[in-house]
Amino acid sequence: MLIRLNLLLLLALVLSALFLVRVQYDSRRLYSELDREVAAARQLETESETLKVILRAQAAAARVEQFARTELAMRPAAPATTRYVREPAAGAAAATPAAPAAVTTTGGAR
To answer: What is the DSSP string of 10-22?
Structure first.
């Protein structure tokens, strides 16, 4: 009976040792995976900040103005191309919607 108890305790000891080794292996594997994911998150954050900087540069006023001049063939309003429209009289204004005070035209529309 004592031998059976010793064998049972030996078996329990071996199984618990194997379980401990497995748990340590899983722990190391998960820690390594966590470290890789944290590094990937840092990389994505860096890329996000870089893209935000590029977006701000693309939306800069000088860049937009250059695009409007070159691609859209737009030009600043000049007094020679501005037409002033008189507002209708007070009685006529109630019958029709209000017209803008000044309308700017640029000639040759695309």
So the answer is: HHHHHHHHHHHHH
